[in-house]
Amino acid sequence: MKKILIGKVVSIKMTKTVVVLVERKFRHAVYHKVIIRHKKFKAHNEKLNLQLGDLVKIEETKPISKDKHFVVIEKL
């Protein structure tokens, strides 16, 4: 089963590639405080016309390059 993540586009400077910031929230086991963690993923984008700040859905795929393992499915 492939991972599907939702995140915000933070960079469109590369050709056919966007950088997507994925945020996850979880509750600390002892202190019960909500903690937010961020991770950036490079995703392949060939057809969609994306701008900074767009919400997108990305899906895991076979490696496209050294650090590109996701592809943009749709703009939300």
TrEMBL record:
An MF annotation (GO) of this entry: rRNA binding
GO biological process: translation
Keywords of the record: Ribonucleoprotein, Ribosomal protein, RNA-binding, rRNA-binding
InterPro entries: NA-bd_OB-fold, Ribosomal_uS17, Ribosomal_uS17_bact/chlr, Ribosomal_uS17_CS
A GO cellular-component term linked to this record: cytosolic small ribosomal subunit
Matches recorded under CDD domains: Ribosomal_uS17
Pfam assignment, any one: Ribosomal_S17
NCBIfam families: PRK05610.1 (NF004123), uS17_bact (TIGR03635)
Protein function: One of the primary rRNA binding proteins, it binds specifically to the 5'-end of 16S ribosomal RNA.
HAMAP family tied to this protein: Ribosomal_uS17_B
Summary of subunit composition and partner proteins: Part of the 30S ribosomal subunit.
Protein family: Belongs to the universal ribosomal protein uS17 family.
Protein name: Small ribosomal subunit protein uS17
Organism field: Candidatus Roizmanbacteria bacterium GW2011_GWA2_33_33
Highest classification ranks of the organism: Bacteria, Candidatus Roizmaniibacteriota
GN (gene name): rpsQ
